[in-house]
Amino acid sequence: MGMRQRREGTTLLEVAVTVTILGILIVTFSGLLRAITVGGRNAPTTPGNVPTQQQVLDQINTFLTQFSRDVRGASTSSVENGGKKITLDDVVYEFQERTGEIKRKKGSGDAKIVLRGIYLESGNNEIFKQSNDSVVVTLPVRYRSQTGHAFEKKTFSFVVQRRVFSSPSPQGG
């Protein structure tokens, strides 16, 4: 008499609770996945992996900051290897054609990658060039387009003015 019959199926409340829990899980995991894949813009890319435009711009900015300090602080500089290597006192920057990377080596320490994604085309082989009291850096880069389906190429060129070290003036006596 007081027994209720059990109906098959789910109630609206059960469906609402399940959808809410799934929604929370999806949002949580998508945020975590996005943080892992996009969070480290400056994370190095593998040689076969072409970086995004923002990764390239971040790397160039970091590279130029360090390179400018080294150029301005150097009392001597020399460009070698057809413009692929520059020596600034005890700091050496060298372009690795095989990997498309520029490495920086200070003193007897290990060379560290400071820039990736350099893409040399035939006929343009100079990365570093000296002229009077400045150093010109030309960085032809390749990156993924915003759609992700094609590659774009762009060449950045920068002039870094060297500090001119004046010789001591003769003392009159």
Structural notes for this entry:
- The chain has 173 residues and is α+β, with helices and mostly antiparallel strands.
- It is 28% helix and 29% strand.
- The protein has 2 helices and 8 strands, in the order ααββββββββ.
- The chain has helices at residues 12-38, 53-73; strands spanning 77-80, 85-88, 91-96, 101-106, 112-115, 128-131, 134-144, 151-161.
- The strands form 2 sheets. Strands 1-2-3-4-5 form a 5-stranded antiparallel β-sheet, with helices on one face. Strands 6-7-8 form a 3-stranded antiparallel β-sheet, with helices on one face.
- β6 and β7 form a beta hairpin.
Strand content: 25-35%
Principal-axes geometry comes out as elongated
Tell me the total number of β-strands.
8
Low-confidence stretches: 39-48
What is the mean pLDDT? 79
**Main sheet, how many strands, which sense, barrel?**
5 strands, antiparallel
| Alpha plus pi helix count | 2
Ends: how far apart?
126 Å
H-E order: HHEEEEEEEE
- From the helix content, strand content and strand pairing, which structural class follows? alpha+beta
Radius of gyration using CA atoms only: 28 Å
- What is the helix content? 25-40%
Across the major sheet, the strand order is 1-2-3-4-5
